[in-house]
């Protein structure tokens, strides 16, 4: 059985996502050696440089295109090029990252090649060339085994679900330049600009996440400035002091700052930070839940984290049901102490 | 300008999901409009208010999906249409996209708007698939719509991506999917709820859309509950916050996660 897999290398302006190497590496493991081939597809700036890396991570060869029309990510020209290569190569499968780009590219290629997509998969079994994928549904409250009845089977792989990719710089392979499938005049979109968002958080690929909940507003010993008279605004002010403390803990751990939906809805922190069913679904090595009771939507979004620590004053809070380590206590005492000890122990 | 907004009916996000004899169940929890789709309705209404136009809400589903459509009507959509046909009991994303693309064509819309994804199957595929089928620009994960020119037939949006925001201009007609950054969806008004409760919601079949039943590419041989998390629930206690913190750090170092 020849398992030929195309692996799309996702990047932003020539900077590859670590998840792309997870995809290449997972493809290598699944392609039946010695006759199975993994071909990396790399389109956009710095493609040639990324091609070498893709081979080190497990690709047998790389197809690259650095045409000016691909300088900024747009799904239409890239999907068209992947589909063109798909028609020529007739692969068994095409793998993508589960990212904003990977999802829509897989969707478009599926239409072009009249096949289906298995999105956001966390496990793949190769049953004689037929890939049976496991994926979370209802934000991970349930799991589903899914199969694609046609070829190529299109999969997007969840970030961090397939283990750390191993780099082997002794591997070598052919890098081939390919032409675009569409010209600039055939494209109906144009990238005008980029805007960075202040304090943008990348929860999806963080190895450590520290999240705050409604409990962050409970330090009544703090007195808001007198000019804040509105009771709701006073609560938000208190919570923001609490979140600053939670943020310091995240910082000393080198992690990202998360939040519960309740904290976001109450206006304590921006939506970017929300973990849960209508926020980000995350799976870090370490998840620290501070002052979060553990509503079902929140648990769905973080329950697959490797180690969960819960700090909450309510011993009956549902969050303790998923926590490996629990501390029942006042977060305003525990969190600063934890930050202090970590600073000493991690020599920061 | 005619705008279509596609909504789906799903179990409430607070529902406890389970599998009973291979069938997904959600206990007593209500079926609601997919929370992401409320943002899509909001975007459609904001556009219609600002630039003029009519908003049609469409849903593919069973008879009960009319409740999700009523929510969209109560928020302010002008009309609602249910797409239902016994030939499509459980369409995958691709089949759904084929049906919705046909509906957008039948309505003759300039914009078709989706939520980011549905909270049941969590695929996020239907919007870009529909765009591809229609050959329209796919502007997904829209955080803001900064410009719309009905004469020049162009739209400018800010897309929320991992690295920040990407400002993209596209030609109309186009497909949009809306992210939560767009802004809180409005609540249905009292008058809106009254109007919605009396509204006649027509049903379109595949024959009325003029398409055959689309082929299903993705099968779901098994749905199951995730294995219970093995938590020993190690409660860490001590005489002082420092002692507790110290013990916790010991454990985390031993677990190799720091």
Number of helical segments with 4 or more residues of chain B = 7
Taking pLDDT < 50 over at least 5 consecutive residues as the criterion, the unreliable ranges of chain A are none
Q: What is the CATH topology of the largest domain in chain A?
A: Rossmann fold
Percent of residues in beta strands of chain A = 25-35%
* The CATH architecture of chain B: 3-Layer(aba) Sandwich
Please provide the ordered H/E string of secondary-structure elements of chain B.
EEEEEHEHEHEHEEEEHEHEEH
CATH level-four homologous superfamily name of the largest domain in chain A: HUPs
The structural domain count of chain B equals 1
Mean pLDDT of chain A: 93
- The CATH class name of the largest domain in chain A reads Alpha Beta
DSSP summary, beta strand count of chain B:
15
Instruction: Please name the fourth-level CATH homologous superfamily of chain B.
Output: HUPs
- Find the biggest chain interface: A-B, 94 and 86 residues
Fill in the keyword field for this structure.
heterodimer, A: 348 residues, alpha/beta, Rossmann fold, seven-stranded parallel beta sheet, five-stranded parallel beta sheet, 8 helices, 29% helix, 26% strand, B: 258 residues, nine-stranded mixed beta sheet, 7 helices, 31% helix
Structure commentary:
The complex is a heterodimer of chains A (348) and B (258). With 348 residues, chain A is α/β, with parallel strands linked by helices. Helix content of chain A is 29%, strand content 26%. In chain A, the strands form four sheets. In chain A, strands 7-11-6-1-4-5-12 form a seven-stranded parallel β-sheet, with helices on both faces. In chain A, strands 15-14-16-17-18 form a five-stranded parallel β-sheet. Chain A has a three-stranded antiparallel β-sheet with strand order 8-9-10, with no helix packed on it. In chain A, strand 2 and strand 3 form a beta hairpin. In chain A, helix 3 (75-89) packs across helix 4 and helix 5 (231-252) runs parallel beside helix 8. The longest helix of chain A has 22 residues, at 231-252. Chain B has 258 residues and is an alpha/beta fold. Chain B has one domain (2-209): Rossmann fold, CATH 3.40.50.620. Chain B contains seven helices and 15 strands. In chain B, strands 11-10-9-12-8-1-6-7-13 form a nine-stranded mixed β-sheet, with helices on both faces. Chain B has a two-stranded antiparallel sheet with strand order 2-5. Chain B starts with a strand and ends with a helix. The relative contact order of chain B is 0.17. Chains A and B meet through helix 3, helix 4, strand 7, strand 9 and strand 10 of A and helix 3, helix 4, strand 9, strand 10 and strand 11 of B. Strand 18 (325-328) of chain A pairs parallel with strand 15 of chain B, so a sheet runs across the interface.
